[in-house]
Amino acid sequence: MQQKIHDPANYFFNFNLTRSLETPVIKDILTDGYKDAGIVDSVKVVHVPKAKNLIHLRLENLADLYDSNAKNYTIDLEKLAKSIWLTANAKKPVDYKTMEIKEMSLTGNMEI
User: What are the residues facing 49 on neighbouring strands?
Assistant: First the structure.
């Protein structure tokens, strides 16, 4: 019983990807966009979709003072948001008119 509580079952799935000639292959632009925006090494991004065209992103530097290679990173939020937008609309590209970026509190309910 104790084993089941502390070590729950893990499930892993493998799929055989078959590519048809009719379906175009969509290039992964999110990974390159993240690197261009500055999401590297110990920077963690958590995506929280809130509504249509509204997403909360939590950025966290996992390195702390006890890590020997701890350093500060600069993130380009415009590039980050653009890469997320382009990835989400990769099949049918749509351009956006405006983008609003707000810095929020840690809980995400108050503007800073």
Answer: 55
Helices (H) and strands (E) in the chain, counts: 3, 2
Would residue 41 count as lying in a domain?
yes
Stated length of the chain: 112
- Beta strands, E only, the chain: 43-51, 54-61
The pLDDT of 99-106, averaged and rounded, is 90
pTM of the model: 0.70
Query: Based on the structure, what is the number of domains in the chain?
Result: 1
Burial level of 37, CB count in 10 A (0-12/13-18/19+)?
Answer: buried
Please check whether residue 54 lies inside any domain of the structure.
yes
CA distances from 93 to 21, 52, 64, 81, 104 (A): 21, 16, 39, 15, 29
Domain that holds residue 74: 24-112
Within a domain: residue 8? no
The pLDDT value given to residue 75? 94
How is residue 29 written in tokens?
A: 């632009």
